[in-house]
């Protein structure tokens, strides 16, 4: 029993559990909207595109979250502008934009000497998170969660049918770019925990799992939040005993949950 409770005796493990609970709610809720809207690649694009912003922010001696947010918004706005003014499809443009910005970030990092550890940017530093990062992530997560809860019906209508949303008088463009801003903000919040690459898992997998398990949006939100918190807890807990990084362990557990949900959904469909 003492061995099983051992992870809870270390402060760095307690902080890791705290940051995971903090970012679980907004990432899970956003993942539901992204899956329904077909924007999964947008989260991927923005998460990869913040790298040059983080490095430039370090060089300019400004907070890294400002650079990450600005880079994410540039990626989102550029993707929207190019898709509206060209014959190329949105997913192709997103691939070009995020790979280009990610490449720029890697080149800048290799050419300029900085104290920014690339592994911490890419894979996170959950076990070494500072109190300042904990508070920053908490405030961002609280802000996004409050907006998503207060305006979930408007965002849901926009996700399903933007034309109907515009016909009912909703500010479609404001909701559109507001969603992009929230994606950028939550990636900033998860940057110190799971890193750039693995943050996309938290923005896609919970919503995809919940989508396979229920047809009601309210239940989908609840299931996504529970799955994210449970995966985060198990991932951090298991990583302590198997001596692995917490972030990839969390993503692996989310993948296992997705496979289970997919198999269950396939069996239910065949029996219907």
Write out key terms for the chains shown:
mainly alpha; ABC transporter involved in vitamin B12 uptake, BtuC; 272 residues
What this model shows, in words?
The chain is an all-alpha fold and 272 residues long. It has a domain at 17-197: ABC transporter involved in vitamin B12 uptake, BtuC (Orthogonal Bundle), CATH 1.10.3470. It has helices at 11-37, 40-59, 64-84, 90-111, 118-123, 131-150, 152-160, 162-167, 172-191, 195-213, 217-242, 246-271. Helix 3 (64-84) packs antiparallel against helix 9 (172-191). The radius of gyration is 19 Å and the shape is globular. The protein starts with 10 loop residues before the first helix and ends with a helix.
What fraction of residues sit in β-strands?
under 5%
Total number of beta strands: 0
Can you count the helices? 12
Mean pLDDT: 81
Major sheet attributes? none
Secondary-structure element series: HHHHHHHHHHHH
Distance between the termini: 45 Å
Coarse morphology: globular
> Which stretches are poorly predicted, pLDDT < 50 over at least 5 residues?
none
- Secondary structure class reads mainly alpha
CATH class of the domain at 17-197: Mainly Alpha
* Range of helix content: over 70%
Provide the CATH superfamily of the domain at 17-197: ABC transporter involved in vitamin B12 uptake, BtuC
Radius of gyration: 19 Å
